[in-house]
Every structure is written in structure tokens, then in C-alpha cells.
């Protein structure tokens, strides 16, 4: 859907492999797909809010929905400083409110370059999987929409430090984090208005 598209530059994707536990990229916490009422695979969730069945959705519609989400003015900014020490990833996040709202924050660790044959195709182009979810920090009970930072006024800031232990079976050089801020929308649901995605486990990056 995103290959060669101008909208790709504004998209940060994570992939939760939850169909088969024999998948090398398998993410075992089933409450993830249950929390979004996902009953078919693959499915797409945009901004941790809107769910779509990829199998019955046209690429044109997907592109349209992504473009519409990108066109919305962000309700918050987020930045992150990431580092590793003794097998633990430290993710220091800071959120800046761009309107009065209730905010949450999360940090997901993903791994790139996981090789696994893809059912339904013999094209090895699709056998290397990227942005595979390994850890979803910011889960509260069965919600994956972030830890509560509280009510913030416009221009107010809040910080949170995440600590994520690396599994020795993962290739740490292929790992990175995606940090997000979520807030209440008019519907009362939480959705993600902005993300920051450092390219590695060392460095600092800010959202748009």
C-alpha cells in the first residue's frame, strides 16, 4: 500500500504477528488483538483507534484513510531519548500538549530483519519482516493505548521513563523503539496524534 507513495513518509508502522506461535516474530500477548476486537488476520489498526479488515478493504480506501489521518492537526508533540545499558533499553519520553486534553504515552520495541516464509506467496521479497513487535510498554490491564500522563493544558509538558529488558534471542542491532502519545478524541476514545521513532537504540528524536 505504501510502496512508492508520498504518504509513506508520515507513517510509522509496527507489525504484531499473532496468527501462529511458530512464527519467529510471534508476539504472544493475545490481549493485543483482543483489545481491538480483531477476529481476522491480517487487520490494520490506524492510530490505535480505527480498525480495518485488510482482506476486504481496497488499497485505494486504505490510502485514503491514511491520508485523512495525516491531514489532522496533531494534538501533541512527543520526543524520546533512547539508550542501552546492561541489556536494558531506557526510553525517556517527553510529551508536549498542543491543546487541553488527557494524555497517555507508550513505548513499543520492534525488531527488523526477521526471516520467515510467508504463506500464500513464493516471492522471497516477502520473507523478511520488519517492525515486528517484541514489547508493548504502556499497556494498562487490556488497553494498549498508553500509560496515563494526566490532564495537560496547552503547552504543558510531561515526562515518563520506560525500561525495556532485551531478550537474548533478539538481534539488538536490529531493534528500535516506537514511542507514541495518545489523547481523547471527540468520540471519547483514545487515539494517537503523534509518534517518534528513533532509528536505533541510541539517540534522540522528536515528532513533527
- How many H/I helices? 2
Total strands: 13
Q: How much of the residues is beta strand, in percent?
A: 35-45%
Element pattern in H and E? HEEHEEEEEEEEEEE
N- and C-termini, Cα separation: 23 Å
The overall pLDDT average reads 90
- Proportion of residues in helical segments: under 10%
Low-pLDDT stretches:
none
SSE class: mainly beta
User: In angstroms, what is the radius of gyration?
Assistant: 17 Å
Shape: globular
How would you describe the overall organization of this protein?
Strands 5, 8, 9, 11 and 12 form a five-stranded antiparallel β-sheet that branches. Strands 10-4-3-13 form a four-stranded antiparallel β-sheet, with no helix packed on it. A two-stranded antiparallel ribbon has the order 1-2. The radius of gyration is 17 Å and the shape is globular. It is built from two helices and 13 strands. The chain starts with 30 loop residues before the first helix and ends with a strand. It has helices at residues 31-35, 59-71, and strands at 43-46, 50-53, 76-85, 88-97, 101-111, 114-115, 128-129, 132-137, 147-152, 157-165, 175-184, 190-196, 203-206. With 208 residues, it is mostly beta strands.
